[in-house]
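To: structure subgroup
Subject: Chain for Friday's discussion

All,

I'm putting the inputs and outputs inline so they're searchable in the archive.
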Amino acid sequence: MNIAFKGVTAEEMNFKMNRIQMQPNTRFEIKPSFARQIQRIQENEKLLVVHLNLKIESTEEAPKPFNMFISLMGMFEVEGMETDEDQRRFAIESTNILYPYLRACATNLTADAFANPLVLPVIPGGMIFPEDRQPAVDPSQN
């Protein structure tokens, strides 16, 4: 399978500061949620679009100093993706490629809002989504 990265664009970037009362030395637990959607372009079956989203949202139970939503779109040209395992490998590889862009957007967006910059950890794309962490199923094992 051959994967060629064609580019990335930001579809949406939102930041909203939450004015919440904090005690001195309060530490917030910022747990972003991630989502990914992969779509094939009908006009060209070799082109795939990957939407990678990050969301941080304050709730009453888990207050956060800000709400943030980032949606990136990556374009890929793929040849030889024929099996479910190929699709799984593409999902992981495309996430590996797009995640550093998402990290940079999150850091820049918070810094540009004059908040403490949020620096997401460096992690492999295959660790973000639970379905990617599952070992590949070997059909000969059944």
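Points worth raising on Friday:
The chain has a mean pLDDT of 90.
Residues 84-112 form the longest helix (29 residues).

D.
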